[in-house]
Write a structure and sequence with these properties.
Largest interface: A-B, 23 and 21 residues
Helix content of chain A: 25-40%
Number of helices of chain B: 26
Shape of chain A: globular
Number of strands of chain B: 15
Order of helices and strands of chain A: EHHEEEHEHHEEH
CATH class of chain A: Alpha Beta
Radius of gyration of chain A: 18 Å
Number of domains of chain B: 5
Helix content of chain B: 40-55%
Strand order of the largest sheet of chain B: 5-12-11-15-13-14
Number of domains of chain A: 1
Oligomer: heterodimer
CATH topology of chain A: Rossmann fold
CATH architecture of chain A: 3-Layer(aba) Sandwich
Strand content of chain A: 15-25%
CATH topology of the largest domain in chain B: Rossmann fold
Number of helices of chain A: 6
Structural class of chain A: alpha/beta
CATH class of the largest domain in chain B: Alpha Beta
Radius of gyration of chain B: 25 Å
CATH superfamily of chain A: NADH:ubiquinone oxidoreductase-like, 20kDa subunit
Largest sheet of chain B: 6 strands, mixed
Strand content of chain B: 5-15%
Strand order of the largest sheet of chain A: 2-1-3-5-7
Distance between the termini of chain B: 60 Å
């Protein structure tokens, strides 16, 4: 029997949740015994090469490329999991949601003290993804099956969630692992 | 309202000093009176300036932030300069049904500014507010605290024209309502609309009889009589009044207080307004009786800001009672001292919750307290306090006069006596009905001449939306408990508009302390709109139910604990309405539309949203 396949991506996130995945430490050796990775920064595979069992999404969506990647994950993954605050609620990127987009862009690209006035321009290259009117949590765009909270989620939480899912058993999480104050 | 040029610093300095000094002299250097200070300062020129906040903070030993926190908590306090005339148009559902939208447009057109703004000439500010207790005479508005009812385009034109002529607001009231609304100290166009006067609150009443009788009894006997009568709280929660008094009396330490909760803010409720207009002494005697029973010397009437127009009249009634020897020192010559003060609210629905009301009466933000300790243990100034509804106290007065046996001969075994209902919405005869408990919704609908009824909202937005299947249910504590708000919707009405109005109300009125109430209701409203827009799935209905449960069970006061009811009760009683709007086959339908989400970016960067992006 072939191993279950996992894919991961960081959308509008800081890669902190991926760092937390790495924080499972030497258990990563157990993990690669249990699963194979497909599209993921962990093995640097850029595109889906096959249907995947579990997709882990870090970060919410703040531009059209995020939406593209997220939709591709939903299409290719049997189970999709939002990992961390940004994927679940928008997180830090969502701090801009109360400020009009034009104001955000002007502040960053026109009025910032590090902008040379002669270079001041809001990026508009066709190659760039289009920025969304606000940062969105993943479940507002595609159906998300599970949510792992935290900023970042504790490595033990990620490990326990993955192994429980792989073994088809209920989650057993100690209170301190889910307590965030 | 007077105006000063606040840009002249010297003048301002002198003005500030004198104003604040005068207030401190009048009330004492006590933060208890903070809301009164702020209201009086605001009365002088329409808003509270930063300098005043600073001076007041220094004088009272508070931080400026604390005072600003109080100002921003209440609807009717402001730190922004408004126009000379401030219009607060009521946006409750009955106002909407009676043509609020048209009246609002008309105000905007005549005043030349939009709601939320002040006209360019600084003359008129247009604002909206939650229910002002005039549901049977909508659309209604408060203009500089004067009540205007049954507004229409024509009246708005007239009012705004008068404003341009500088006419004082009180003089714009041309016709007065009935009963004490005509009293020279009220002079309001408000109508009582008492359609059915029952035997208790609107029954025979001989002023002074009850308090004299009570003072001939031992306090314990008074409590016993109220307990025997099985009087349950009329504000809606239905806690046994006698028991509350007993708990309060049993607290041995400290001063005891009586507070009459006249902050009726539940949309659709206006019975306390009418009771206070027509039966004020019955209420005040009830407070004195409660004071005697629990061992208090001071009672506070916490009157909602919207009823400011009744304040002078109520003070006059209190003064008359003092002169007649049934209030104040040595009442009726029987050695009992008890007096009553009026504390004004400043506009906050949550202050109807007793612990929030106490906070507000102490001059703070009206945020509910943790309980226990309950107010009967640690209430006003952390002393034992009984907080009772206007109608409860009026009823207690009648129980003392006529006896528990008389009272229990009315209503049902569990729910004794009568209930004063405020009926509004789609019926021929909206107004006040004092009925015996046990009345069915069907009987009530006949009484008020409602036809083709689709739904009845019992107990206001926080209550229950009943469909025809529930019209045989009874108004009583064991079935449909209500503080008295009855809003009727006929078959031409869109219940989704009703739910939307109620959800907006709770979002607006949440004090913000508990996350499930503050954030949960916003999410609930968003989910509701998704379903209303036809993008809902069965999963969304399930989530609404689950989220509603979370909000109810994890909020600490009655506001949060009932705030999902508009959605939950319509979902339970009108499920087909929701099901007709959802897509039952779909597993998931996002609200998200990529094209819409990038539209702004396209505009800013001058780029086009191409097919390629659409594939994304």
């Amino acid at each position: 029997m072939s191993k279950p396949v996992i894919a991961t991506a960081s959308l509008a996130g800081c890669f902190g949740c991926h760092m937390s995945i790495l924080d499972i430490d030497e258990r990563i050796l157990d993990l690669i015994e249990l699963v194979e990775f497909d599209k993921s920064p962990i093995d640097d595979i850029k595109n889906f090469s096959r249907p995947v069992d579990i997709g882990l999404i870090e970060g919410g969506c703040c531009n059209s490329e995020n939406v593209e990647v997220l939709r591709a994950f939903r299409k290719n993954c049997r189970i999709l999991i939002s990992v961390g605050e940004c994927a679940i609620m928008g997180g830090l990127p969502a701090m801009r949601n109360t400020i009009p987009l034009r104001e955000c862009l002007e502040e960053a690209y026109l009025h910032s003290p590090t902008v040379a006035p002669e270079d001041a321009v809001i990026p508009h290259d066709e190659e760039l993804p289009l920025i969304l009117n606000r940062a969105y949590p993943c479940h507002e765009i595609v159906k998300v099956d599970y949510f792992l909270p935290g900023c970042p989620p504790n490595a033990d939480l990620i490990w326990e969630a993955l192994t429980a899912l792989l073994q088809g058993r209920p989650l057993k999480i100690d209170y301190p692992i889910l307590k965030y104050d | 309202m007077l105006f000063y040029d606040i840009n002249k610093p010297n003048f301002m300095q002198g003005f500030l000093m004198s104003s604040i000094k005068r207030l401190l002299k009048k009330y004492g250097k006590n933060r208890l009176h903070l809301i009164t200070f702020l209201k009086e300062l605001q009365a002088e020129k329409g808003f509270i300036a930063e300098k005043e906040v600073q001076k007041l903070a220094e004088a009272l030993g508070l931080s400026m932030t604390e005072i600003e926190g109080v100002i921003t908590f209440y609807h009717f306090l402001t730190d922004k300069k408004p126009g000379k005339y401030v219009v607060y148009l009521n946006n409750s559902i009955t106002s909407e049904m009676a043509g609020m939208e048209e009246v609002a447009r008309s105000f905007e057109q005549e005043a030349g500014c939009r709601f939320g703004e002040t006209s360019a000439d600084g003359l008129i500010t247009l604002l909206q507010t939650s229910c002002i207790g005039m549901n049977d005479q909508e659309p209604a508005a408060l203009i500089n605290d004067v009540v205007f009812t049954c507004l229409n385009q024509e009246k708005v034109k007239k009012i705004v024209a008068w404003m341009r002529q500088g006419k004082p607001v009180q003089e714009m009231v041309e016709e007065f309502g009935d009963g004490a609304n005509r009293h020279e100290l009220v002079r309001a166009m408000v109508k009582n609309n008492i359609r059915k006067a029952g035997p208790v609150v609107f029954g025979d009443f001989k002023p002074g009889e009850a308090i004299r009788k009570a003072l001939d009894m031992a306090p314990e006997e008074v409590i016993e009589e109220v307990k025997k009568a099985n009087l349950l709280g009329r504000g809606g929660a239905g806690f046994p009044t006698g028991l509350k008094w007993e708990f309060c009396r049993k607290e041995k330490n400290g001063e005891h207080y009586v507070i009459c909760n006249a902050d009726e803010g539940e949309p659709g409720t206006f019975k306390d307004r009418v009771i206070l207009t027509e039966r004020p002494q019955m209420v005040f005697e009830g407070m004195a009786i409660a004071g005697y029973a629990v061992g208090a010397k001071l009672g506070l009437l916490y009157l909602r800001h919207e009823y400011t127009y009744l304040k002078k009249y109520l003070e006059h009634v209190l003064q008359k009672m003092r002169e007649e020897g049934i209030l104040g020192q040595n009442i009726a010559g029987k050695g009992f001292d008890f007096d009553i003060e009026i504390k004004m609210g400043a506009g906050a629905y949550v202050c109807g919750e007793e612990s929030a009301l106490i906070e507000s009466a102490e001059g703070k933000r009206g945020e509910p307290r943790d309980r226990p300790p309950f107010p009967v243990q640690k209430g006003y100034l952390n002393q034992p306090t009984t907080v009772n509804n206007v109608e409860t106290l009026a009823t207690a007065t009648q129980i003392i006069t006529h006896g528990a046996g008389w009272f229990r001969s009315m209503g049902t075994p569990v729910s004794a006596g009568t209930k004063v209902l405020s009926v509004s919405g789609d019926c021929e005869k909206p107004g006040i009905y004092e009925v015996e408990f046990g009345l069915t919704i069907k009987e009530l609908l006949e009484m008020v001449e409602a036809r083709d009824t689709l739904a009845v909202q019992v107990g206001g937005p926080s209550g229950n939306c009943i469909s025809e299947a529930g019209f045989d249910r009874k108004i009583c504590y064991s079935d449909l408990a209500t503080g008295g708000s009855i809003i009727i919707f006929n078959k031409t009405r869109d219940l989704f508009a009703v739910v939307r109005n109620f959800l907006d109300f709770f979002i607006e009125e949440s004090c913000g302390w508990c996350v499930p109430c503050r954030a949960g209701n916003v999410l609930l409203r968003k989910k509701f709109e998704k379903i209303a827009a036809g993008r809902g799935t069965l999963q969304d209905l399930k989530e609404i139910e689950a989220w509603g449960k979370i909000i109810k069970s994890t909020s600490r006061c009655g506001l949060g604990q009932t705030s999902p009811n508009p959605v939950l009760t319509t979902l339970a009683n009108f499920r087909e309405l929701y099901e007709s709007r959802i897509n039952k086959e779909a597993d998931f339908i996002p609200e998200f539309d990529l094209k819409e989400a990038v539209a702004e970016a396209c505009e800013i960067t001058g780029r086009k949203f191409t097919e390629e992006h659409e594939h994304a």
